[in-house]
Design goal:
With about 160 residues, this protein is an all-alpha fold. It contains five helices and no strands. The termini are far apart.
Amino acid sequence: MFFDKMETLDDLFEMQLKDLYSAENQLVKALPMMAAKAKDSRLRAGFEQHLRETQKQVERLERIGKNLDFSLDGHTCKAMAGLITEGQETMSERATDEVMDAALIAASQRIEHYEISGYGTAAHFAERLGHNEAANLLRQSLEEEQLTDTKLNDLAKNYLNVKAM
């Protein structure tokens, strides 16, 4: 539980930041495993690039927390834990390289969609609350997540899914 009782939009905003912070830190640990499992060089490079972006997103969240005097520690995002567990289960399956790469993209897009919804919500709350710098930082992360999702989608539809057939 985040709070004994959430009473304000500020409380809810802080909860959203804690959840994003936990999610991103879990992803920092998972992305190297996904990159190692990917056989397609473009997919592997995409995971490596997204790891660098995710590390920057963690830094942005820490900056927001510091600026607003919110402690972001002490919470585990159960949704991200579940998405990562599903991805790990997928990676343990026996599959051809092409099918595994397609499966990695599917798992990654589930993660991206979760992050997109989280950053979109948090950015809206920040804007409503007048936390303009936080809103800008959150929108920057949101745009990165959306771009990553688009790249994964294009790679899947235009190349890897065809190979997996």
